Automatic annotation (TrEMBL), chain A:
Residue intervals of the DUF7088 domain: 51-151
InterPro entries listed in its UniProt record: DUF7088 (IPR055396)
Highest taxon in the source lineage: Bacteria
Transmembrane segments: 20-38
Species name: Ruegeria profundi
Name under which the protein is recorded: DUF7088 domain-containing protein
Keywords carried by this UniProt record: Membrane, Transmembrane, Transmembrane helix
Automatic annotation (TrEMBL), chain B:
Key words of the record: Cell membrane, Membrane, Transmembrane, Transmembrane helix
InterPro entries: ABC-2_transporter_component, ABC2_TM
The protein, known as: ABC transporter permease
Transmembrane region(s): 24-48, 60-78, 99-123, 135-158, 165-187, 223-242
Species annotation: Ruegeria profundi
Length: 181, 248
């Protein structure tokens, strides 16, 4: 009680300027805490307004993801230059990336997603080739491009999608779920 | 309560008409539409993408708004302070928050007008192909919310100075930092010395991260809360500052 009295006395002693400064600081703290809370607690509160339900996974995939027995590491090899050289692939690349993000969100931390831009002559490029990701040669671009996925588990199991072909767009979720299973 | 609301609506009406009383509105609308069009068609290659969506348009919105909204917000309070009309305004028998809210809503409505004028692009996309209109609607919602957040920040900063140029540049810097907070450019610079939670906190304040998800058709509660709370925070600080200046 004594402490409380001291506290109210301290508040009463503040000048108007100090009072306003304190209020601003408190508002800022409140803002950050509300957002951290919302980010953690309201994570699943979402509405998918896309026609093809890009952000919504089928029930089978969701069950499978929540029952994953071992951690998986997904590496999406996507060259930055690809969407510039082939703009028609841009929305497909967004979709692949979004769906992989949903997989990682649903898997309770069992899936780590890494999006890698393998630059020419880099270690990342060597590793992509090592996984068996296909090089794509485009007419307008000097360097080969990559647009594929490699999945590894904690032991030596690995599987890949060497190239995301637009022909397979309709079966994207099927292909990904088969890869993860 | 009704008295407060009517005072908000009076301030709103006065401020909204004030935009159109000067050439400011026309200049702003023309510059916004010309830049948005140029970016969409020439830089992003709207036709070359060959897909019926408005991603090429929405990608540019954070970057355009970070220049254009400080331009709308800078005059809200700096102008009143420079011309001294703030004295008159503060002697009116209305609460400061109603004036703050009225001014903000007027600027936000004006931004809404600017966005509404981009509908020809939406009509074009629908005429050329069959786009996913849900995604486009979500994109407009995200853009409008982001505009509100930027405007609230610009208005808040303009209370601090009598000089509109200073208000403009400071607001542009603050919004720039908010937009880039999630980029590797900024996070990489912080990660070296700051603890992990601080890097996470900075990344959580990123406008771009939230904006990108909503423009791809995913409306999430944290995104709505983020933009809403940013607007409320900026307007509250704005009210405090107006109150402080009134006392001086």
């Amino acid at each position: 009680m004594d402490r409380f009295a001291k506290f109210t006395h301290w508040i009463g002693g503040l000048s108007r300027r100090q009072m306003i400064g304190t209020s601003i600081a408190l508002c800022a703290v409140l803002f950050i805490s509300v957002n951290i809370f919302a980010g953690r607690a309201l994570d699943g509160w979402r509405a998918d307004v896309t026609e093809t339900q890009v952000w919504t996974l089928s029930e089978g995939t969701e069950t499978l993801l929540s029952d994953l027995s071992e951690p998986l590491h997904l590496r999406l090899y996507l060259s930055d230059g690809l969407t510039e050289a082939a703009p028609q692939l841009a929305s497909y690349a967004d979709r692949v990336r979004g769906m992989l993000q949903s997989y990682a969100d649903q898997a309770d931390g069992q899936i780590t997603l890494e999006v890698i831009d393998p630059e020419p002559f880099s270690d990342a490029e060597d590793r992509a080739v090592g996984f068996g990701i296909n090089r794509i040669s485009l007419a307008g671009a000097a360097e080969p491009m990559f647009f594929g996925l490699a999945a590894t588990n904690s032991t030596d199991g690995r599987s890949t999608i060497p190239i995301f072909s637009p022909d397979r767009e309709a079966w994207l979720e099927y292909d990904l779920t088969r890869l993860v299973a | 309560m009704t008295a407060s609301l009517s005072s908000v609506s009076v301030v709103f009406g006065r401020e909204f008409r004030a935009y159109f009383a000067t050439p400011l509105a026309a200049i702003f609308l023309v510059v916004f539409l010309a830049l948005a069009g140029a970016m969409t068609f020439f830089v992003s290659g709207f036709f070359a993408r060959g897909s019926a969506d408005m991603a090429a348009f929405f990608t540019w919105m954070p970057w355009l708004f970070l220049v254009l909204l400080p331009a709308i917000g800078m005059r809200l309070w700096a102008e009143e302070r420079r011309s001294g009309t703030i004295e008159l305004l503060m002697t009116m028998p209305v609460a400061p928050w109603t004036i703050v809210l009225g001014k903000f809503l007027a600027g936000w409505a004006f931004t809404g007008v600017a966005l509404a004028l981009t509908t020809p692009l939406w009509i074009t996309v629908n005429w050329l192909g069959s786009p996913d209109n849900g995604v486009i609607a979500a994109g407009y919602l995200g853009t409008f919310l982001m505009a509100g957040a930027f405007l609230a920040i610009a208005a808040c900063i303009s209370t601090l100075t009598k000089n509109q140029v200073i208000a403009f540049i400071s607001a542009a810097i603050v919004t720039f930092l908010l937009v880039t907070a999630g980029l590797e450019l900024v996070l990489g610079a912080i990660r070296g010395w700051a603890p992990y939670w601080m890097t996470e906190a900075v990344a959580a304040l990123s406008v771009l991260e939230h904006f990108q998800r909503i423009t791809q058709g995913l409306i999430e509660a944290p995104t709505l809360i983020f933009f809403g709370s940013l607007i409320v925070l900026a307007l509250m600080i704005n009210t405090f500052l107006v109150d402080l200046k009134k006392a001086q």
